[in-house]
Amino acid sequence: MRHLRFLIAGVLAVPALAQAQAEDLTGTFQKIKETGIIALGIRDTAVPFSYIDDKQQVVGYTIDICMKVVDAIKAELKMPDLKVQTNVVTASNRIPLMANGTVDLECSNTTNNPDRQKQVTFSNSHFLTASKFVSRKADHIASIEGLKGKAVTSVSGSSNMVQLNQVNASRKLGITVLPAKDGVEAFLMVETGRAAAYVMDDVLLAAVIAGSKDPSLYEIVDDPFSKPEPYGIMLRRNDPAFKAVVDRATATLYKSPEMKAIYDKWFLSPIPPKGINFNVPIPPVLKHQFESPTDSPDPASYPG
After folding, report:
1. Considering Cα of 251, then 252, then 257, then 258, what sign does the dihedral take?
2. How many CB atoms lie within 10 A of CB 31?
3. Quick one: three-class SS letters along the chain?
4. How far apart are CA 199 and CA 162, in angstroms?
5. CB neighbours of 49 closer than 8 A, spacing ≥ 6?
């Protein structure tokens, strides 16, 4: 009977101990410990960074990086069976959903810039890209000045949309700006002639052209709206313990041979669902970032 009392006391102590351990944690770590779930914010069409393939699997370059971060969080919390939940986010709602706790890591192609740093924070940057535009070759638009008086689209809520509006105002171009809900809708506007150009990060423009019915009809015009800007995994602000683990995990990955394998998998090999190969070798500025990781939002912090 005495043995049974000890046994019952021990069983009751287990959840009490887990509760005590959760109470010692703060912020995102506390949320994850209490729920047993880490929630990833993912995109459904941001090829090749974060998208849903033909088998309805969430895949992509940033997803692979985020799963390495999840492994580090499992080890930190000693939760090998931690469940991973994915939530589709958009350019417009990703920051509110991060702020209200719906997602813990946003795993996509979100630009780390000073404006967003006022609401969220970011991991070590995982990609760098410049804002350019795609147009139909038949229209012979060779520069941003060539967009004067035309209809131009970009994705609502994106930094590209902000840059388009700023350049339109500062240069008095008289552009009619057409907001799109995502990259698919934006490129469709160009395909159908509703817009003369679509402004977006150059690597994403390369992706939509490669996936179009006839890539030979389109071109990316080499007249950038911005300097190369960093992408990062988005996190909640003012959570230094969680950010430290994410930064440590990404820095370790970037400096390892595994990061080259992940890059080659998504930018130098055929990817699902159509077997498209973007054939984009790693640029010197990104190679340097992997050798000396930083989370800076300042483009000048990334020497080529």
Report:
1. negative
2. 19
3. CHHHHHHHHHHHHHHHHHHHHHHHCCHHHHHHHHHCEEEEEECCEECCCEEECCCCCEECHHHHHHHHHHHHHHHHHCCCCCEEEEEECCCCCHHHHHHCCCCCEECCCCECCHHHHCCEEECCCCEEECEEEEEEHHHCCCCHHHHCCCEEEEECCCHHHHHHHHHHHHCCCCCEEEEECCHHHHHHHHHCCCCCEEEEEHHHHHHHHHCCCCHHHEEEECCCCCCCEEECCEEECCCHHHHHHHHHHHHHHHCCHHHHHHHHHHHCCCECCCCECCCCCCCHHHHHHHHCCCCCCCHHHCCC
4. 10
5. 43, 60, 61, 62, 63, 108, 109, 127, 231, 266
pLDDT in tens, 210-239: 889 999 999 999 899 988 889 999 999 999
Q: Tokens standing for 210?
A: 């490669």
Pair of tokens at residue 234: 């988005």
Largest CA distance in the chain: 89
Q: How far apart are CA 151 and CA 128, in angstroms?
A: 27
The stretches in the chain having pLDDT less than 70 are 1-23, 304
Size (the chain), residues: 304
